[in-house]
Amino acid sequence: MGAPDEIMRKAVMPTYGRAPVSFVRGAGSWLYTAEGDAYLDFASGIAVNIFGHSHPRLVEALTSQAGQLWHTSNLYQIPQQEKLAYRLAQHAKLDHTFFCNSGAEANEAAVKVARRFQYRSGHPERIKIICAGGAFHGRTLAMLAATDKELFREGFGPMPEGFVHVPFGNLNALRDMMSDDVAAIMVEPVQGEGGARAAPEGYLDGLAAAAEEFGALIIADEVQCGLGRTGKMFAYQHSSIQPDVVVLAKGLGGGIPIGAVIARADIGEAMGPGSHGSTFGGNPLSTACGNAVLDGLEEEGFMAGVRHRISLLDDVVSRLKTRYPDIIIEVRGAGFLRGMRLHDDIVAGEVTAALREQQLLIVPAADNVIRLLPPLTITEDEIAQAEAHLITCFDSFSASR
Ligand SMILES: *Cc1c(COP(=O)(O)O)cnc(C)c1O
Questions:
Q1: pLDDT at position 401
Q2: Average pLDDT of the chain to the nearest whole number
Q3: Buried-most residue among 10, 14, 178, 311 (CB within 10 A)?
Q4: What is the pTM for the complete model shown?
Q5: Hey, which of 16, 246, 250, 256 would you mutate to test ligand 1's pocket, going by the most ligand atoms within 8 Å of its Cβ?
Q6: Sequence ranges of the domains in the chain
């Protein structure tokens, strides 16, 4: 049933604008084409390949589990799942973890958990979810309602109710929106798709105070910014808040689909048997990979190394901003979720394509931002190579204006 490549390519539903390149192999921070061309990967499959490609630890975890047992369903106990649940809860200073397969699904579960908790606590009127301007929470119908991008919703209505948006980083606007019918405030401590925007200093603390006053929960969407990407296990740990619910996905399996919702004990307990479920969620294969990812993150000295290399990338982007004031308006984001906002006459998508021609992979984001999402294992030398590519690229954009 083979056919020419162009014919088979058309069999894929055209939901993505794809670059005309494909890869057959990956190792560390590099992706290789069939022709053997090497691309330096500062995209990490959108923050998924947190230890790069074919990391021995993950290959070992995956293949040894694959030879034992892949899937049993949640009809039975799953020791790998229990272990990962416990470890994640310890890291988040929370108690219960629910597993699913993606970020959208995990955020959706977080909203269900928050509403159910309010309902069970005698507050069935608390249904509203306050979200931030520029937020991205996924593509299910409810998460489209939570996401702040009208274009994503076009033609998909009606949307589920109860989601409202306030400008990200504006505490007055947030407080104005608080009322007795709010179930939760849902926030990305560092927005990814929204343009690599870190919560301003003090914002999360103010948000927590507002949540506390109105009995609302805090859902931290750490799908992109979590798991070491900002130099701490969770990005909210750069503030002093304690979220009630923490949501993970992307990097959690290092490339194997897995999402997680971590909640406080009383919140998790509002979800009794039968209240929610996922066939694949937390199966032995994905949770074996999740445990291997945590092993790597917890390794002595690993996070200190990440912080050191983050400081090198910080230096790179600030040098670039100084050198190309005519191209870069602003450096944004945090750690290895770094953004550079470009002047309006330079299109982020075109810069991304030009860098790809130079065999450096990056990701555009909203607000005409180019985003750098290297694996956490990126080396000092690879950071220097990326800088050289960015300089070549910006030089040619400068020259052509
Ligand atoms: C990618 C992302 C999601 C959605 O994850 P999927 O796995 O694509 O469903 C949700 N929230 C944030 C912050 C993300 O970056």
A1: 78
A2: 97
A3: 178
A4: 0.98
A5: 250
A6: 68-270+278-298
